[in-house]
Design brief:
This protein has 287 residues and is an alpha/beta fold. The chain has helices at residues 17-28, 57-66, 81-94, 129-149, 168-188, 206-212, 216-221, 227-239, 253-260, 274-277; strands at 8-12, 32-37, 45-46, 52-53, 70-75, 100-103, 152-157, 193-199, 250-252. A seven-stranded parallel sheet has the order 5-2-1-6-7-8-9, with helices on both faces. Strands 3-4 form a two-stranded antiparallel ribbon. The two termini are 26 Å apart. Its EC number is 1.1.1.-.
């Protein structure tokens, strides 16, 4: 494993869920992790029915530090370009460079699966702004810091394009993230920076636990990944001396887990949903 005492990462959307899980796994290996999001007070966000959802950037940062890393909470409105620019100016001032950027934020709505979509609120389209556009802006401002590091990784958190569970705007945003990774690869490859799009499976988030409870058996029975599984997979990608062979690709987390021998919870290895929800575009697929 590469020495990571000076590893610096920015995780967009890390108050809870997959972003938090990735932050904790990076923190456990001693990384400085910037925890970026809008939730500064736990419970200020609510799920369907008005139930408060736990988690905040400050709590995640404290947990990252507790497991051996250096967690830094940064409140950021990702719908505002100036906030994103200020975030990376801070990273430059405090750290001087950036190794890993995880583009994970999304403007989610609990009723995004409503059909037909034209009877749902029009503001569900916000996910194209906070979910796609903001990540391109983040990568724009992160680029000089990634170049400064000498070896970098950009991870766009996407999803199976044929799942047909959420609003069409959700899938437009995710398809855009896949294409952005492919396009970034063209320019970043000579600079030793890999750009990938990652498809996790269904993830056991705090919102999910609000609905389904916290039974390990329930989530494993549904084939759901723990939030930290994605972080373990990302760590394996970073440690791969051939990481650059992955650049530009859309990768399925469960398939990477199998490739690198990464498990989730004891006795549970997530399975690829490729046969259920479709494959990445052939041009972007690793297969």
């Amino acid at each position: 494993m590469e020495d990571t005492k000076d590893l610096v990462a920015v995780i967009m959307g890390a108050s809870r869920g997959l972003g938090k899980g990735i932050a904790l796994e990076l923190g456990q290996r001693g990384a400085t992790v910037y925890i970026v999001g809008r939730t500064t007070v736990s419970g200020s966000q609510v799920s369907a029915g008005g139930r408060p959802v736990p988690g905040s950037i400050h709590e995640t940062a404290a947990e990252v530090t507790a497991v051996g890393g250096h967690g830094i909470a940064v409140a950021c409105d990702l719908s505002k370009d100036d906030d994103i620019r200020a975030l990376f100016e801070r990273v430059r001032e405090e750290s001087g460079y950036l190794n890993i950027l995880v583009n994970n934020a999304a403007s989610m709505h609990d009723e995004m699966g409503k059909r037909p979509f034209w009877e749902a609120p029009a503001n569900f389209a916000d996910i194209i702004n906070v979910g796609l556009r903001c990540h391109h802006v983040a990568t724009y401002y992160a680029a000089p810091l990634l170049i400064e590091s000498g070896r970098g990784l950009i991870v766009n958190i996407s999803f199976y394009g044929n799942a047909k569970i959420h609003d069409p705007a959700y899938y437009a945003a995710k398809a855009g993230l896949d294409q952005l990774a492919a396009s970034y690869a063209d320019e970043f490859t000579p600079l030793n920076i890999a750009a990938v799009s990652l498809w996790p499976g269904f993830v056991r988030t705090e919102r999910g636990e609000e609905v389904l409870g916290d039974s390990k058996e329930v989530f494993e029975g549904m084939g759901m990944e723990s939030p930290r599984y994605g972080g373990r997979v990302l760590n394996a990608v970073w440690d791969d001396p051939d990481m650059m062979t992955l650049t530009g690709k859309t990768l399925i987390a469960a398939e990477l887990g199998e490739r690198y021998g990464v498990s989730d919870l004891p006795g549970f290895d997530p399975k690829s949903l490729r046969e259920v929800y479709g494959s990445p575009h052939p041009r972007l697929d690793l297969d």
